[in-house]
Design brief:
heterotrimer, A alpha/beta (602), B alpha+beta (253), C alpha/beta (180), A: 602 residues, alpha/beta, Glutaredoxin, Rossmann fold, 5 domains, 6-stranded mixed sheet, 5-stranded mixed sheet, 15 strands, C: 180 residues, 5-stranded parallel sheet, two-stranded antiparallel ribbon, 7 strands, elongated
């Protein structure tokens, strides 16, 4: 290729980069969206692309670079034209069916996990839970989910990839993700028209509406359970140039998929709830922060928003109320569990790495762009809608004293009927297990890996903020499951998702992962177990945010409630080396072409 | 303000650290108040005059048995704070060990030896070894700049250089990129190299590093062993910042 | 009644012997020490294998298969094992090769390095193979105490040994704690 030709190519590339950047930024002025478009089109974000983005968006190069390297879905090195990400969740992961589907795919296409094939056709890697837990093993191909994977499907997918068949020509039914709503309650039994609650809201007025929310006892449904009324009140009272409403749809806790269903089938309710919030706090702008793994829902959500604007339910002068204007933009994440933490989410919205902020101050007073911001879960906004219409007493009548109303659960794992279950707070675990057809249950992980692992002695405990708290995830493990493997899975998850800001979590989660791996592969001693306990306590106690503070829960719960899972794997020696000594000689063996006795260590 | 209650002026705006009452001004953090009163709370990423950061977690204290980060937690009247306790110092030692095994901290061959706050902290806490298995991560050296060297082996992600560049130098030379233990220091230049940035030798960011990650070239080993900062001082002394920053011209010369 | 002397074994694995030199810097205090201790396997005595010993002083990290075997012999035969110096404690200067893979190191030293004639990576059945990384000794065996320094001073050695001889847990005062 002549120099002139390559000059032309490189200046073509620059023009192409610039045109993509300016087009996307004009449609959607957020660095995450620009980077996504570049990743899609060019299969990576090159150094040149980073520079061009920095120039066009007037950001420091280092900030753009930092963002590219932070989020799992952005890459500096080209991915394959088919980018396959297998979930590694215990419910929707590649091992969910008992067969290692990712290894199988890798063998068929001669590609190792975590790599791109030399011909650039395909990349294969694992990724954290993608929220398809009610559908068995699942993957994302170029961001699109394929669920209910089995050996036959993997074989067909491999063939389609090898033949470079365009995704549009793959079986359409593969990409269809069903809602499996099994039990409906307060929120899911919905027969409201689009705007009745907004009219009720206008009738109450802002203060009156807020009062209903406060009196209802509604608490955040994302897991933390902060009083929604108090949050909206604090934000309303806070001084600021502008107030913001943010919906946290970053549903990343493994085993949680209820927001996926709500976004798919109750999007109107959600946007209505955000509108109610905006009315009470005086916000004109709202954001839906949608996790990158749910990008496939974006067209549907945009359609719902567009229709609401046409109906005068969003935009200027909502329902004819002069001065009440509110609109919602959707920002799509890029693969980072930590962005489900509200302050990290705001950092991400602002185009930075998702690092949790120092608190105080809290988002209600200093949130998005330093302004008063409400960040609430999808389900919380939907609950607010119902409360506004039917009244706080209606909501309070259900549930318990400390936990009013209902909770939507995502039930998955070893049960006959995984899916969505809505119960009044106070429901027992036993009830849930009966209803979903779970048998021979060994353990239940309530609230995902950051929640609580319970054994059968505790199945009469109740779901609620005062006993067993959950954002919705409920994962069931029967007697056949290796619980240590489950706990190891959770430890890997936290090590992968730690944002890296603070020492205890950044280093501690890796130490916990490595220590558990040592025990799980049969090289752990009593000393190693004691070390796990000690490190876990430090990570739990001294970390900067909720991720670190809960990352050690599975280990601490496991040691307390399932000690046998660890004990039976221990070697009863005083000490085991921290690395495989014989494997450490492999490189030397290859260089020297030796395989005699002295070339090995026992 | 009730007229009939006699407000004791001493306890009005005070916090208690290890049983000692310390005054504070509204808006100060626990760290601010403690240092002002001559009470040392171990810290690495904290520096007076910079936005508090809260990443190293050396300054963890217990407020009525709940953990708090002293450098970012606002002082509130009546806080009962434990600081210099065996349990806390044990936790701090573990955190220090975590830093040592995460990076590649080989003291004998590091020019910062004896002037290094991380090392001095380890001495202060009685750390004899790193305890945990070393990560031995591959981290890059950037020696491109004519006068300033960047050795990421030693970086503890304290972001003092990031803050110094932004808040004092009026530049934006440094940033942290990546996630988890892959987080690393990057340079704000087109090539990513220090030589292509606008960093100058006179920048505070070039001198602020508490460890041997950012070093001025050709300035090491000028001060003999026995007269380095932490040969003469302990890390727990208040007000060492000036001495540390003027290392080129040693305060005792 | 004659009390039997405390038996000490010493070795340098992937070390420079600087810790051994520093030990000898106690000069004439060695005479008094020898009232209470005797040396078994050690460069000082040239005894080649450990008998049953009370204390093992290990200098240097673990860099090759032979280091592993020696270290294991020490652990098997010494009641108390002490990691002496930076290299034994965290790999030290030799661990700087962990930044590169083994092949890169060998090629730089024996093939591509400046001034190399007849380039070839040494290979003989009697040569111990190198581990892919240099490790602190506590990655391979249980270690009882740590004596940091590069090297630890003679005073530091005497403090630790003195404590052990007196039946106390060894401890280093602040002024004797150095990593260099």
């Amino acid at each position: 290729m002549s120099t002139g030709g390559s000059d032309l190519n490189s200046s073509n590339m620059t023009d192409l980069l610039r045109s993509v950047i300016s087009r996307v930024y004009a449609e959607s002025p957020n660095v995450l969206h620009v980077l996504y478009a570049l990743q899609r089109q060019f299969l990576h974000i090159s150094d040149e692309a980073v520079r061009e983005v920095a120039v066009h968006l007037d950001l420091p190069i280092s900030q753009v670079d930092a963002v590219v390297e932070f989020y799992s879905f952005f890459h500096k090195i080209p991915r394959g034209r088919y980018d396959l990400l297998f979930s590694n969740c215990t419910s929707c992961g590649y091992m969910a069916g008992g067969v290692d589907l990712m290894a199988m795919f890798g063998r068929r296409l001669e590609i190792a996990a975590g790599s791109t094939r030399d011909d650039g056709l395909v990349s294969m890697d694992q990724t954290s839970c993608i929220g398809m837990c009610d559908h068995g093993a699942a993957l994302l191909v170029n961001g699109m989910p394929i669920v209910s994977l089995d050996v036959a499907m993997i074989t067909r997918i491999a063939a389609l990839v090898e033949a470079a068949t365009p995704l549009e020509d793959w079986p359409a039914e593969w990409f269809h993700v069903e809602d499996s709503i099994r039990v409906s309650g307060l929120l899911l039994k919905d027969d409201l028209s689009e705007d009745i609650s907004l009219r009720a809201m206008l009738a109450h007025g802002a203060a009156g509406t807020l009062s209903e929310i406060v009196q209802s006892g509604l608490r955040g449904r994302g897991g933390a359970g902060f009083s929604t009324g108090m949050k909206w009140q604090l934000c309303r009272d806070a001084q600021g140039a502008a107030h913001y409403v943010v919906c946290n749809a970053d549903e990343g806790e493994p085993g949680t998929f209820k927001d996926r269903v709500l976004l798919h089938s109750y999007a109107d309710r959600l946007f209505e709830g955000m509108t109610v919030c905006a009315f009470t706090i005086g916000a004109k702008q709202g954001y839906l922060y949608l996790r990158g793994e749910y990008r496939y829902l974006l067209p549907h959500l945009q359609t719902v928003l567009a229709r609401r604007r046409e109906l005068g339910l969003l935009g200027g002068d909502i329902l004819g109320q002069p001065g009440f204007s509110f609109d919602i933009d959707i920002v799509v994440g890029a693969g980072a569990y930590i962005c489900g933490e509200e302050s990290a989410l705001i950092e991400s919205l602002e185009g930075k790495r998702g690092i949790p902020r120092v608190r105080p101050p809290f988002p209600v007073t200093h949130g998005y762009l330093g302004q008063p911001t409400v960040v609430n879960n999808v389900e919380t906004f939907i609950a607010a809608v119902h409360i506004v219409l039917r009244g706080s007493a209606w909501f309070k009548a259900v549930g318990t004293e400390k936990s009013a109303g209902s909770k939507i659960l995502s039930v998955s794992g070893d049960c006959a009927a995984p899916g969505i279950y809505e119960y009044p707070f106070g429901v027992t675990i036993r009830q849930v297990l009966d209803d979903c057809g779970a048998e021979n249950v060994q353990a239940v992980q309530v609230g995902g890996p950051s929640g609580t692992l319970i054994n059968s002695a505790e199945f009469d405990r109740k779901l609620g903020f005062d006993d067993l708290s959950t954002g919705g995830s409920l994962m069931i493990f029967n007697q056949t499951r290796d619980l240590l493997a489950v706990i190891v899975n959770f430890a890997h998850f936290f090590a992968h998702e730690s944002c890296g800001f603070c020492t205890p979590c950044r280093v501690g989660t890796i130490l916990l992962k490595n220590g558990l791996d040592k025990i799980a592969c049969g090289h752990g001693t009593r000393y190693d177990l004691d070390e796990m306990q000690r490190i876990a306590a430090l990570v739990k106690c001294r970390s900067h945010c909720g991720l670190g503070q809960t990352a050690a829960n599975p280990i601490l719960d496991g040691l307390q409630h399932f000690p046998q899972a660890f004990e039976q794997r221990l070697v009863h020696r005083d000490y085991e080396p921290h690395f495989d000594l014989d494997a450490a000689l492999e490189e030397a063996r290859q260089v020297s072409h030796r395989d005699d006795t002295a070339a090995h260590i026992k | 303000m009730s007229a009939d209650t006699k407000q004791n002026p001493i306890t009005q705006n005070t916090i208690t650290i290890d049983g000692q009452e310390i005054p504070f001004q509204v808006g100060q953090t626990i760290m601010d108040a403690a240092l002002a009163a001559g009470v040392y709370i171990p810290h690495l990423c904290h520096r007076q005059g910079f936005t508090p950061h809260g990443s190293c977690k050396l300054c963890v204290v217990d407020i009525a048995s709940k953990s708090a980060t002293a450098c970012t937690m606002p002082a509130v009247a009546g806080q009962q704070i434990s600081n210099n306790t065996p349990a806390l110092n044990e936790a701090r030692k573990t955190i220090t060990q975590m830093l040592f095994i995460e990076g590649n901290h080989i003291c004998p061959s590091c020019e910062k030896c004896g002037d290094c706050t991380l090392q001095a902290m380890a001495y202060h806490l009685g750390m004899l070894d790193g305890h945990f298995p070393q990560f031995f991560q591959r981290r890059e050296v950037d020696a491109s700049h004519p006068t300033v060297m960047l050795d990421r082996d030693r970086c503890i992600l304290c972001e003092l250089c990031v803050r110094a560049s932004r808040e004092v130098d009026g530049k934006n030379v440094f940033e942290i990129a990546g996630r988890g233990t892959n987080a690393h220091l990057i340079v704000n230049s087109a090539s990513g190299k220090l030589v292509d940035s606008d960093l100058e030798t006179s920048d505070m960011a070039a001198h602020i590093c508490p460890v041997g990650a950012i070093l001025i070239k050709e300035s090491g080993y000028k001060v003999p062993i026995g007269q380095r900062i932490f040969d003469l001082h302990k890390v727990s002394e208040i007000g060492l910042e000036k001495i540390i920053l003027t290392k080129m011209k040693h305060a005792d010369e | 009644m004659l009390m039997s002397k405390i038996r000490i074994a010493t070795t340098s694995l992937a070390g420079c012997f600087g810790c051994h030199m520093s030990f000898l810097d106690m000069d004439e205090r060695l005479v008094a020490l020898l009232e209470h201790v005797e040396f078994n396997r050690s460069p000082f005595t040239d005894i080649k294998h450990c008998g049953s010993c009370d204390i093992g002083l290990i200098e240097g990290g673990v860099s090759n298969a032979e280091n592993v075997h020696v270290l294991r012999e020490f652990r098997d035969n010494c009641k108390i094992l002490i990691a002496v110096g930076a290299c034994a404690i965290n790999g030290g200067v030799p661990a700087m090769r962990n930044h590169f893979n083994l092949r890169e190191c060998l090629e730089e030293a024996y093939v591509n390095g400046a001034g190399v004639e007849n380039p070839q990576i040494p290979n003989d059945i009697e040569l111990p193979l190198l581990l892919d990384k240099v490790h602190p000794i506590h990655d391979v065996v249980r270690v009882d105490y740590y004596l940091p320094g590069c090297p630890p001073s003679a005073d530091a050695f005497l403090k630790i040994l003195g404590d052990l001889l007196a039946g106390k847990a060894p401890s280093l005062p602040y002024n004797l704690l150095h990593y260099d």
